[in-house]
């Protein structure tokens, strides 16, 4: 704590006391956990304005009600339910000029002290025009609004991605040179047809693997250009997965990335993947990311303001290479848990394994995934139901192709500045906003997530576990009988061929 003597220490909760906050992307996976943590651990925080648009016929007020009804907010409701009244929905659309906000709502942001920009498109296959609007233009529009409106601004945290410069296999906590001028791209959005921009993608991006990483990297350059006008910090999460501790263990609300892979394998749908089994994936728990974002804002608005007013700190929210997960080990452990506590809607016995042999991969893909899905769809159709398995397999294969660049490569991330965020906290703040990550996330972190995934993501109540176990046992028996029959037929075929050849 010697470093604290160099500045006037203000606790995290005190920093947010009576301060209004503005958040984009508050309805996303990380955004929800960030909102919950702010409301629970900073009880005297001011209003939290959450940018959102109407969706599926629901008003923004109804969407806020849906958001806080999640199990994620159960602990907050029990400890301080009144805090939920501090959430103020604000209509907007990040793809529009001025974020699609009404003038009166922009005026309401005049008292905002802290802003978090989480909203972005995380689709890897978005057309370049859409990715520019959601990831670059939204950042620029937000900064322009805050610069002209929020005169008492203390900190703005831009949430990027650890893969914003994926050509670097060792990623330092610094800005990298831009691949293109972001202002030129913003101007090009309205000048050129989407097809023209897509055709120019490879040349413009210096062969970036997709529009997501390319535009997120350029959004960091927007931050760099505004660093002297607003107090900025950048947080780069790696692959964000379920909570490790707060407010409940193992919470997740989407099928993205490894979660979708594990669930699909658990249902018996996915039985192979084209990837190096020994490669590692850098996973970071979502509650750790939320704490990092909060501490980045706190440090930017307190310590950095005193020491370096135009600083632009960059924080890689990631784990060490040793803590990262090996794909094969992750999937093998996952299958173990899925055998112990299977899903009630399992379609077949979880099995299979990833492979780095392209021919073996396609053989497995055809004979263990596509062909069974086709045959089952025929049966489903014959029973008068709507077939769905081939469509699902096509979607899974499309996702696998989109992720191929990332699973076939590995990265290491510098985290000195991120770790320092915890080191400079006093004992009380460290207990509330610090974190501990085990040496390996393959163990209890994965194990503790399966029941919450089953409950909250798959909507599978605990009462169905005995039924699911009986169902899986029957499937295992049938699967072994089929294997014996197939092996028997192969033996008979070989014997007949050998016998016929000897005549």
UniProtKB/TrEMBL annotation:
<dbReference type="GO" id="GO:0005777">
    <property type="term" value="C:peroxisome"/>
</dbReference>
<keyword id="KW-0443">Lipid metabolism</keyword>
<dbReference type="GO" id="GO:0102965">
    <property type="term" value="F:alcohol-forming long-chain fatty acyl-CoA reductase activity"/>
</dbReference>
<comment type="similarity">
    <text>Belongs to the fatty acyl-CoA reductase family.</text>
</comment>
<keyword id="KW-0521">NADP</keyword>
<dbReference type="InterPro" id="IPR026055">
    <property type="entry name" value="FAR"/>
</dbReference>
<keyword id="KW-1133">Transmembrane helix</keyword>
<keyword id="KW-0560">Oxidoreductase</keyword>
<protein>
    <recommendedName>
        <fullName>Fatty acyl-CoA reductase</fullName>
        <ecNumber>1.2.1.84</ecNumber>
    </recommendedName>
</protein>
<dbReference type="GO" id="GO:0035336">
    <property type="term" value="P:long-chain fatty-acyl-CoA metabolic process"/>
</dbReference>
<dbReference type="Pfam" id="PF03015">
    <property type="entry name" value="Sterile"/>
</dbReference>
<dbReference type="Pfam" id="PF07993">
    <property type="entry name" value="NAD_binding_4"/>
</dbReference>
<feature type="transmembrane region" description="Helical">
    <location>
        <begin position="477"/>
        <end position="499"/>
    </location>
</feature>
<comment type="function">
    <text>Catalyzes the reduction of fatty acyl-CoA to fatty alcohols.</text>
</comment>
<dbReference type="InterPro" id="IPR036291">
    <property type="entry name" value="NAD(P)-bd_dom_sf"/>
</dbReference>
<keyword id="KW-0444">Lipid biosynthesis</keyword>
<feature type="transmembrane region" description="Helical">
    <location>
        <begin position="359"/>
        <end position="380"/>
    </location>
</feature>
<dbReference type="InterPro" id="IPR033640">
    <property type="entry name" value="FAR_C"/>
</dbReference>
<dbReference type="GO" id="GO:0080019">
    <property type="term" value="F:alcohol-forming very long-chain fatty acyl-CoA reductase activity"/>
</dbReference>
<feature type="domain" description="Thioester reductase (TE)">
    <location>
        <begin position="23"/>
        <end position="293"/>
    </location>
</feature>
<keyword id="KW-0812">Transmembrane</keyword>
<dbReference type="InterPro" id="IPR013120">
    <property type="entry name" value="FAR_NAD-bd"/>
</dbReference>
<keyword id="KW-0472">Membrane</keyword>
<feature type="domain" description="Fatty acyl-CoA reductase C-terminal">
    <location>
        <begin position="369"/>
        <end position="460"/>
    </location>
</feature>
